[in-house]
Amino acid sequence: MGSSRPQTPAVSTDTSEEVEQFDVIVIGAGVTGLYALYRLRELGFSVRVFEDGSGVGGTWYWNRYPGARFDSESYTYGYSFSEELLQEWDWKEHYSGQPENERYLNYVADKFDLRRDIRLNSRVTSAVYDEGENRWAIQTEDGHRARAQFLIAAVGVLSAHYIPDFAGLESFQGGWCHTARWPKDGMDLAGKRVGVIGTGATAVQLIPEIAKEVAHLTVFQRTANYCVPLRNGPIDPEWQREIKAHYPDIFKKCSETPGAFMHAFDPRSALAVSPEERLAQYERLWGEPGFKKWLANFYDIMMPGEANEDYAEFVRTKIRERVKDPVVAERLVPKDHPFGSKRLPCESGYYEVYNRDNVLLVDVREAPIERITPRGIQTRDAEYELDVIIFATGYDAVTGSLTRIDIRGEGGQTLKDKFAEGPRTYMGIQSAGFPNLFTMPGAGAGNFTRGCEPLVEWVSDCIGYMRENAFTRISATPEAEEAWVQHVAEVGANLLRTKAASWFVGANIPGKARVLLGSPETAPVMRTKRAEVAANGYEGFLLQ
Ligand SMILES: Cc1cc2nc3c(=O)[nH]c(=O)nc-3n(C[C@H](O)[C@H](O)[C@H](O)COP(=O)(O)OP(=O)(O)OC[C@H]3O[C@@H](n4cnc5c(N)ncnc54)[C@H](O)[C@@H]3O)c2cc1C
What we know:
alpha/beta; globular; nine-stranded mixed sheet
């Protein structure tokens, strides 16, 4: 274990090859992994981060598709742990785009000298718990091996990208890519016939950007979503000064709201005010940027029922108003799930795209995709000829990035087998039988960095507590885990989030168990619960 100052890793020769030894191994160099490295190093532990990508940034390294940007206000998303960083960094837009977000995370890596402990181009393929030694042994795709007492899987909730298993993809003669693997030097789409599969949050950002340059765009839609105007804009110098002067207020506000955004629900019921007043509020919030229309609205819009349906109808009307062809408009109007049951896609000119002559919307629920052909996409009704196919088909969310690693705990049990019917964890942090392995579920449905900073602090404090108290092994008890799994199921059943076939419940991946993947509790409740657990000597965990 580490002492009070940073250490250089020891190299042991416990096998024929040299194996690097650390106090902590972190998998992933996104927002979570970078902060875990910073925090643990500050506490004096030796840490090594292994990252699949050739750069840091995680989500903001991989998602280079045109239009990729925050739906969080930029200045609420950035790290809060360094006042110096807060004052140095200028967010240029209210909802900053991928290039800037990637620059930000690189700036953080440089400022805090994080790179020297990060091994890039290192996909971890296996992580095996050595019971005798009480150490985790990891191996990367290129055969590199390392061992550590603690393993932090900061592998991302939306990082295991998913491409449906369409027959014939290998025969396609054009180019294709998934939005999360957009090439660094871009894709040449100018003058091409392009097909986009999917109409989730990613596609909604991408489509207006590429519609302008392609010769023809065919959008293959399975589910129509409620999309709301982002209303992005530059941050002028006066705003910049305001933001920098008020960071403590901004973060305090975020710490008080359910999803850690700076928007608080209106405590009134939508049904308790007159129809005129209700509509006036809907319209006012519609004109505001970002998630306000969702998270600053009447509180019961976020609950299944009449208020939710009233607002859903308001949004449907907005969609119909923007699309000229009534048949196309009706296809774009969501009717099969409640408003707000998915993370709300924020758009900039999305619906107007369908008024363009070079854009066609194909409903693949009506006529499913049968196969990819050498020339394009064959649905039940027609073949669409394409030069490029873009898969905006999302992620095997939350658990996918964990189960794609061969993680073996006590008795050789694999995490993949253990999670076959859904994640089995205690508070999302640990799974019984996998001692000293911390999974980092993040905020799930919330403003990510606001959720992950306190979580990283909790985990690193826990490791620090173990050092101080001469414990070497922490493991969630099966009883605490079972109680948490039950709690997730019971509370989750009443949440709006479980009322749609979305990634929140694994519904986008064929064969995946249909359970709520994240915590059903709000960010403040989770923070309080974790604090209580720690204050009670890490209740629900066995410390040895
Ligand atoms: C397009 C998009 C937009 C988003 N916008 C927002 C937003 O506006 N606001 C918000 O709050 N959240 C947003 N999110 C959620 C976003 O994922 C989080 O905000 C945050 O970036 C997650 O950080 P992370 O470090 O936990 O995971 P990630 O950023 O996903 O990083 C995980 C890293 O782990 C690496 N990794 C995974 N498996 C392995 C392995 N086996 N070996 C080595 N490395 C591995 C990956 O390469 C990746 O770099 C968005 C997500 C996406 C996909």
